[in-house]
Amino acid sequence: MVTRTWVHLKESQVIRVTGSARKNVRSDLCVWSGVLQTEGKTLRGGPRQVRRGPAPADRVPHRQGLRPAYPLTSARARHRPRGKGVPDADEGQLPQRVGYQLLQGVQISSERVEDLPNLAAECLTPLADGVVVQTSGIQDIYTRLPEARLAMLGEATDDARRRVEEIAGRGGRAARELRTARPGVVQMNPLVGTATSWEGNNDQSTLGKTISATASAEFRLR
Predict the structure, then answer these.
(1) Considering the entire predicted model, what is its pTM?
(2) Sign (positive/negative) of CA torsion 47, 49, 55, 60?
(3) Does residue 132 sit in the same domain as residue 157?
(4) How far is residue 123's CA from residue 99's CA, in Å, rounded to a whole number?
(5) Residues 161, 163, 166, 171, CA torsion sign
(6) What is the CATH number of the domain that holds 46?
(7) pLDDT tens digits, one per residue of 24-63
(8) Which of 12, 85, 174, 199 is 20 to 30 A away from residue 33, measured at CA?
(9) What is the sign, positive or negative, of the torsion defined by CA atoms of 190, 111, 107, 144?
(10) Is 5 a domain residue?
(11) 69 falls within a domain
């Protein structure tokens, strides 16, 4: 096998290799999303319940880097099931409206990635009685991924050249010039993760992440 590889290298004018690069990064933005839910007999009763007291944005004025937002508000009617509580209820009777349910979306983002879980809990804890918080979790985002992707593809290409020089040198040849280069899919996983996908991973579940990139290159030999 070694002899056949040696002959192929001696006769070939090009060589193809794949280089790789890895980099550990840390999230620089966290986003917490949730929904405030309450009920009222009228449409006005629900909003008053949610807005009673200071708004979440005003509960931590001494905190820096905290950006609350309210991207969603919706209401839906609540009905009593047909015939419930009425002994001689007509099966064709329309459901009776008994109140409304209000849903208020809330989103909190901050560059203080270590503090956001506590900040979100602090600004939502003093909500009025009867308001339920449904959380969607926290997104740990690395916002500089596009810049990192370009830099790491360059590093992967440099790694490919180093591999070519080592392989070619052992066969008495040397890399002359780069003919073609094809970037691979960049993957961003948790520090202990090695998953891959055709479209590329963009982990948002952990603060610490590892970015990996590959590049396939073809070099002319001399």
Answers:
(1) 0.68
(2) negative
(3) no
(4) 28
(5) negative
(6) 3.30.70.360
(7) 999 999 988 877 777 766 656 555 555 544 444 444 444 5
(8) 199
(9) negative
(10) no
(11) yes
